[in-house]
Specification:
The radius of gyration is 16 Å and the shape is globular. With 110 residues, it is mainly beta. The chain has a domain of 73 residues. It is built from one helix and six strands. The longest helix has 8 residues. It has a two-stranded antiparallel sheet with strand order 1-2.
Length: 110
């Protein structure tokens, strides 16, 4: 599932088991900038822009398990757009893996 869309980068802390970092290779320009809602955070030493509510362009969401979004931070995954066996969230849940936090950012329903 991950071979074509990501690099798995080994991290081997001294005298510990090997861990892997996931580096998605697909960068998508799929955010609807006109409908996405932003707020500006000036509490920190530098100003930052925070997304309050995402809106995506469904036809631009890539058909890969994990991807990056142009000009946005984080790793993204989509549900309901690919075959279930290719969905990253479903694979994690079916395998009983823990330690990942999935947040619903947007839905194109209703």
């Amino acid at each position: 599932m991950m071979v074509s869309c990501c690099e798995l980068l080994p991290v081997e802390p001294e005298n510990q088991q090997i861990y892997y970092l996931i580096n998605p290779l697909t960068i998508a320009n799929c955010v609807d900038e006109e409908k996405t809602e932003y707020c500006y955070n000036e509490r920190e030493k530098r100003k930052s822009i925070i997304v309050e509510k995402y809106h995506f362009l469904p036809d631009r969401v890539p058909d890969v398990p994990l991807f990056l979004v142009q000009n946005h931070s984080g790793i993204f995954t989509a549900t309901g757009v690919t075959a279930e066996q290719r969905e990253f969230k479903a694979a994690v849940e079916n395998a009983g893996l823990t330690g990942l936090d999935f947040k619903l950012l947007w839905t194109n329903e209703g």
